[in-house]
Amino acid sequence: MKPRDIMKEKSSLWIFGYGSLVWKPGFAYKRSSIGHIKGYKRRFWHGDDFYRGDKAKPGRVVTLVEDEEACTWGVAYEVTDSQIEESLQYLKMREVVFGGYITQMVEFIPKDKGQAPLLALVYIATSNNPIYLGPASDKEIAAQITVCRGNTGHNIEYLVRLAEFMRLSCPEVEDEHLFSIEAAALNIFSDCGGITPPEQKPILLGAT
């Protein structure tokens, strides 16, 4: 179902974020809820040649890959009334035009046991996308992330902020893929004595 069809049928819509949306949704919303979806795993397999990279050095950002045994934690945002169209227009530019993502409706399970599961809209980049990079080892992904930056900042910031969200909001969840890449990236920084991207102040790792 397309976002506009959803908008016509509902006065309220939930949008699930599992990447940069967890710390920077960029749209107005009524309320938010931390939780997870089942049947998908989060992977740094999608390329980014605009926000966290460029044409010469595309960055690595997360997408969702189907896996019946997996679940992915993130944040769902409820948008209502005029917020629905405004948020979808914003995300069309942020995720679809520049990011290459498609939309799906998924079941979101809130961390708060008092809140019932609900349907949420999620944006997913597939292997059909021309800037999709696909699998690589954690060390290879980390090495790529440490040297890339785009219009919204360095790729390492994206990685660290996502890892921080998981530690602070879902401390009981062990996201092996995410934390392994973070550890490999921080080792690269440590071995190099810290990296300062060109024409940018030193990155403050751990900033929120």
TrEMBL record:
Q: Which domain of life is it from?
A: Eukaryota
Source organism of the structure:
Pleuronectes platessa (European plaice)
- What's the Enzyme Commission number for this chain? 4.3.2.7
Q: What does this protein do?
A: Catalyzes the cleavage of glutathione into 5-oxo-L-proline and a Cys-Gly dipeptide. Acts specifically on glutathione, but not on other gamma-glutamyl peptides.
In terms of Pfam families, this protein maps to:
ChaC
Q: What is this protein called?
A: Gamma-glutamylcyclotransferase
Q: Which family does it belong to?
A: Belongs to the gamma-glutamylcyclotransferase family. ChaC subfamily.
Q: Which UniProt keywords apply?
A: Lyase
Q: Which GO terms describe its cellular component?
A: cytoplasm
GO annotation (BP), single: glutathione catabolic process
Annotated GO molecular function terms are: gamma-glutamylcyclotransferase activity; glutathione specific gamma-glutamylcyclotransferase activity
Catalysed reaction(s)?
glutathione = L-cysteinylglycine + 5-oxo-L-proline
